[in-house]
Amino acid sequence: MRSTKRIALASILVMASSILISAEGHVVILDYHTFLGNSKSNLDYSEKELGDELDEIAAMGFKFVSLDDAIAGRISGDENIVVTIDDGNHTIYQAFKDVFEPRGIKPYLFIYPAIVRGHVRYALTPERIMLLSESGCGIGAHGYHHNPVTDKAWVKDPKDFMTEINKPGPALAAITGQAPTMFAYPFGVYSKRAEDAIASAGYAWGFAADDKVTPVDFSDTSLDRMAVPRTITYRYLRKSLLAELARIAEAGSPPSFELPVPAPAYGPEAPAANSQAASIGSEAAPSKVATP
Ligand SMILES: [Zn+2]
User: Fold this and answer.
1) Measured in angstroms, how far is the CA atom of residue 226 from the centroid of ligand 1?
2) How far is the CA of 98 from the centre of ligand 1 (A)?
């Protein structure tokens, strides 16, 4: 009798621990662009606006985590933010020094190397990319010339399409010494063909982007690894972004050590996880919304 009870208890604990391992937490991946502070672009932030926004997010209870930690499951709860920055604008370097680094935030940078190699005035230099990499920023690919990798782009010119996929990896490796493993689609838009192409090129993860706040659970086996959603931060939409994040924070983190009902795997979080899956599905087709 006693041993039966012990076996039953052991199997409950094993079940509970596997549930806790599978529910590693959610993360909202933000996608910033430039920090000029004098631009009319909706994608541009001043360093002051950026710092204020990050501080407000932290005050809600969110923790800033690295993309690598989020993917590896070294997070818990629902109040996690990963910062990514697209394109490779020169202002990223100073914003890192003034705003991100003092707050302990290590953004992941998605860079299209054509502007770096061409020493374009508004681009980061190879030396600064290296310094950012050494400071803990991840470096990923964002196309080569920043051309779309949609079905329309393929029909127009398959060679150009493949250049966007195949050329940034070696170009970034020549700068940092490491081949990138993450790919963010130019304009945030993608196609099934692009997903297959980046997987063939050796990328482990692909990232889309739109204006929706979509929390991601990297341990969710139904997550499309080649089209992980990110949220583009629009300067004029800061209030609605903060309101969305406040809603997530108010919903609270899942209980970290309560024995949950064995099935379904996501218990109390099921409705949110399901609605996110539906939202990812609906974004599968390339959107016409263009973003840099
Ligand atoms: Zn871009």
Assistant:
1) 17
2) 23
Distance 221 CA to ligand 1 centre (A): 28
User: What domains can be seen in the chain, in order of their start residue?
Assistant: 24-282 (3.20.20.370)
Question: pLDDT tens across 148-169, in order?
Answer: 999 999 999 999 999 999 999 9
Q: What is the distance in A from the centroid of ligand 1 to the CA of 218? A: 23
Give residue 240 CA to ligand 1 midpoint distance, Å. 22
CA of 111 from ligand 1 middle (Å) equals 8
- Collapse the DSSP code of 29 into the 3-class scheme (helix H, G, I; strand E, B; otherwise coil) and give the result: strand
Phi, psi of 26, deg, nearest 5:
-110, 155
Distance 143 CA to ligand 1 centre (A): 9
pLDDT tens digits for 226-254?
999 999 999 999 999 999 999 999 987 54
* CA separation for the pair 81, 191 (Å, rounded): 26
Res 10: pLDDT: 54
| pTM: predicted TM-score of the whole model, two decimal places | 0.80
Quote the mean pLDDT of the chain.
Answer: 85
Give the per-residue pLDDT at 252. 72
- Tell me the H-state helices in the chain: 2-22, 47-59, 67-72, 91-95, 114-117, 126-134, 151-156, 158-166, 168-176, 192-200, 238-251, 270-282
Task: Give the other-Cβ count within 10 Å of 201's Cβ.
Answer: 17
Ligand 1 centroid to Cα of residue 103, in Å, is: 25
CA of 142 to the centre of ligand 1 (A): 7
Q: What is the mean pLDDT of residues 189-196?
A: 98
Yes or no: say if 62 and 79 are a contact pair by the CB < 8 Å rule: yes
Q: Could you tell me the pLDDT band of residue 40, with boundaries at 50, 70 and 90?
A: confident
How many Å from the N-terminal Cα to the C-terminal Cα in the chain? 66
